[in-house]
Amino acid sequence: MMAQVNEEQHDEIGRRAGGILAVLEKFSTFYGLRLSLLVFSPIEQLSRTLQTVNITLQDAQRAVKVTRGYIQRQRSDNEFENFYKSVTEAAVDLTEAPVLPRQARRPRRLDEGEAEQHSFQSPTDFYKRQYFEVLDLLDSELGSRFEQRDIEVAVDLEKLIVTAANGEDVSANRSGESAVGFCRRAGLKNVRPGHSSSGTPRSRFQE
What we know:
Blueprint: H1 2-8, H2 12-24, H3 27-50, H4 57-74, H5 77-90, H6 108-111, H7 123-146, H8 149-165, H9 179-185, E1 189-195, E2 201-206
Antiparallel strand pairs: 1-2
């Protein structure tokens, strides 16, 4: 369609269509789209899971762990080689052959005292770096958002509430920490042990 518009329209619309077509015919564009599909498919699934109405914090943590595990498994030379091979094969009749982008020289003032500018030996090396950078960024961002201390405290609090709601003893959790100890660790003040009407130990606290 873009090619047809570019050929038939001799105005601004035709020129824009030609520009878009030129970008789409580049291997770098095709590679970027395929890499986006590889990483955003599991991220989209994770997003849908996290937006589920009745999801618990524990379920959310497990979903994030599964997604991070998938991303980390893709981070290997073998996985990259398989991915790159599939992309180059699919791009044969759609784009130009992969080439190294023209490397712009840094201004001389930035070269003083700096390490030698890195140069890639082949298109494969160039796209391999992009591949690993994207995976590392996603894994790091997921970790920084879902492995915070506050989230761990919230998960423990959720477990405590569920345990109490099930009528089980909350005087100590599985790790041996008392409910009072947990509340104090979570930053709750004036915590003191008490007993329910049935005699089961419980904790009274206020923020």
